[in-house]
């Protein structure tokens, strides 16, 4: 820290003149008060801004006295210049025989007295600002102690008074700031203006970085096919987000239950603890695909053990589509009745003859264990109705307009055995 830097700081924060006067008038053997601040910045052998070192030989209520090294000057440190912390008495931080160092803020060089008024606090602050600037430039993490909790955030001691706005305290809203009082916190330097005594700190970036590292570790530990426990934390129209600890995964609506789910809320609610099967993990995109239904035994497995092709069952029409009807034959198992298997008569549209919710008899045509598909037929549960033979039609393709026997007798002789 250069002399010019100290001078600039001195201009931005004046020494408490009342305290200095009390020191020099009431406690030092002299009849004169301290002169005004040296406008030339140079008196005798010391200049304002010089760094001096001394040994404490007297500690009073309002000041500390020290012998300045290699000099016949006496050093005086007012209580306000001892530290940036709030103290009642100098004894809280300094004792006799201690070696102290500070920056000169006033000089008295007269015949009957040679004093330098110096500030430990200003030197500490100057050094602290240098370290803080270096930490900011290198994006280093520093530690500070919470000195005070205010409405807008936290006042933190980082060599100087720094401030963490509530918005930069964490990645989530924190209602109770009092919980941090007196704690040591790791922070980043967000902004610094030493000439304005302004230091803005950021804890949110550290929290986010730590969580990102934890997410990375958990993503690397998850294996497709494994079954884990999670908690439903968010619901959308297309599925449910489930927290697995440090990461969230998505269970698509089609993977919530073996039965068809119309609304996600019909299957799960926020706060539910659920078992899920990990279908896929993408560490780079931080995406996890989950399934609730595949974490449970498939009802198709039980169905295929208990039923066989050709068997007739009752089921409920669940959905009608252009190509047929889906019929639930047991909870969680639906089979397709193709439009051609609905009736012996021609059916143009399934909704012409069936309604959702209707109970129907169906015959199992096939069971596909690999794809878990069931083919069903409604028409195979009833006999094909007998049909009347088509009547014969007699035609005369000649150009003769004269009546023929067919025209005269028609089908009067159709039943004759000839």
TrEMBL record:
It comes from Salinicoccus jeotgali. Residues 11-24 have a biased composition (Acidic residues). Binds mRNA; thus facilitating recognition of the initiation point. It is needed to translate mRNA with a short Shine-Dalgarno (SD) purine-rich sequence. NCBIfam families: PRK06676.1. Residues 1-45, 370-406 are annotated as: Disordered. InterPro entries: NA-bd_OB-fold, Ribos_protein_bS1-like, Ribosomal_protein_S1-like, S1_domain. Transmembrane segments: none annotated. One of its GO terms (cellular component) is ribosome. Residues 1-10, 380-396 have a biased composition (Basic and acidic residues). Residues 49-121, 139-204, 225-293, 310-379 form the S1 motif domain. Belongs to the bacterial ribosomal protein bS1 family. PANTHER family: 30S RIBOSOMAL PROTEIN S1 (PTHR10724), SMALL RIBOSOMAL SUBUNIT PROTEIN BS1C (PTHR10724:SF7). The keyword Ribosomal protein applies. Signal peptide: none annotated. This is 30S ribosomal protein S1. It comes from the Bacteria. Keywords: Ribonucleoprotein, Ribosomal protein.
């Amino acid at each position: 820290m250069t002399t010019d830097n100290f001078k600039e700081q001195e201009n931005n924060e004046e020494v408490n003149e009342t305290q200095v006067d009390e020191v020099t008038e009431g406690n030092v053997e002299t009849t004169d008060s301290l002169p005004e601040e040296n406008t030339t910045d140079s008196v005798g052998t010391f200049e304002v801004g010089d760094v001096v070192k001394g040994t404490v030989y007297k500690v009073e209520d309002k000041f500390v006295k020290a012998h300045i090294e290699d000099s016949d000057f006496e050093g005086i440190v007012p209580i306000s210049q001892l530290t940036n912390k709030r103290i009642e008495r100098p004894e809280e931080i300094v004792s006799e025989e201690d070696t102290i160092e500070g920056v000169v803020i006033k000089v008295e060089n007269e015949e009957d007295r040679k004093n330098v008024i110096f500030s430990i606090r200003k030197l500490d602050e100057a050094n602290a600002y240098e370290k803080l600037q270096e930490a900011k430039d290198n994006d280093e993490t520093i530690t500070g102690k919470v000195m005070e909790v205010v409405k807008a955030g936290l006042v933190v001691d980082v060599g100087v008074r720094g401030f963490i706005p509530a918005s930069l305290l964490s990645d989530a809203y924190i209602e109770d700031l009092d919980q941090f009082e007196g704690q040591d916190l790791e922070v980043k330097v967000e902004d610094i203006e030493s000439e304005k005594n302004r230091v803005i700190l950021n804890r949110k970036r550290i929290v986010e970085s730590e969580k990102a590292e934890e997410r990375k570790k958990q993503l690397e530990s998850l294996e497709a096919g494994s079954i884990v426990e999670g908690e439903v934390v968010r619901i959308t129209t297309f599925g449910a987000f489930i927290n697995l600890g440090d990461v969230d995964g998505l269970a698509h609506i089609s993977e919530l239950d073996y039965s068809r789910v119309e609304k996600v809320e019909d299957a799960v609610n926020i706060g539910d603890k659920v078992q899920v099967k990990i279908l896929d993990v993408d560490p780079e995109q931080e995406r996890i695909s989950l399934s609730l239904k595949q974490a449970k035994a498939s009802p198709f497995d039980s169905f295929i053990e208990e039923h066989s092709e050709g068997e007739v069952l009752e089921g409920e029409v669940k959905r009608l589509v252009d190509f047929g009807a889906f019929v639930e034959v047991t909870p969680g198992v639906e089979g397709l009745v193709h439009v051609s298997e609905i009736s012996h008569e021609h059916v143009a549209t399934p909704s012409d003859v069936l309604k959702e919710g209707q109970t129907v008899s169906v015959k199992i045509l096939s069971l596909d264990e690999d794809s878990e598909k069931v083919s069903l037929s409604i028409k195979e549960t009833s006999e094909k109705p007998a049909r009347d033979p088509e009547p014969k039609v007699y035609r005369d393709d000649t150009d003769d307009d004269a009546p023929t026997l067919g025209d005269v007798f028609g089908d009067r002789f159709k039943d004759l055995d000839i």
